[in-house]
Amino acid sequence: MQVSSICLPAKVPVRVKSLHTNPATVNDPTSTAKVAAPKWAQKTITLPPLKRGCHLITSKIVKEVRQELSEYQCGLAHLFLHHTSASLTINENYDYDVRDDTETFLNGIVPEGPSAPWKHTLEGPDDMPAHIKSSMFGCALMIPISNGKLNMGTWQGIWLCEHRDYPTPRTVVVTLNGI
């Protein structure tokens, strides 16, 4: 592991920890260095229906990929949600009020009901607002892997935001890549 300092344009020193391989030795037949080949793993996780709102799902995701995750020293975990009326985001993992306040905020900026201006209402008055909210947060996350664990901040957690009144099971594909 190498520790170095870099300077940003504002002359603010930043400490950087890096774990890397030397690419020059990968294709050098005279090198005696051993370089681990990148590996891939993928798992599809089905989450049960969750009521409308923001839900902390970090422990569920980690539980499902713990064994595979433990095989990676350095890499990336990509999470992809197979739905257009729910979303994924990373946010506060401790105080439930943050999840509740986020839901309140979303409902305040994306109108619903008979007075809302939406044309798309095939699946009910919460359908189009759910699509807009999903687009705001997105359906994918990328999280670093370090020493067999998701490398997230102390207060960070993975949220599934359910934007429908009548939810269904949600599917998340987790793809791991690294060494």
UniProtKB/TrEMBL annotation:
Pfam families: YjbQ. InterPro entries: UPF0047_YjbQ-like, YjbQ-like_sf. This is Secondary thiamine-phosphate synthase enzyme. It comes from Glycine max (Soybean).
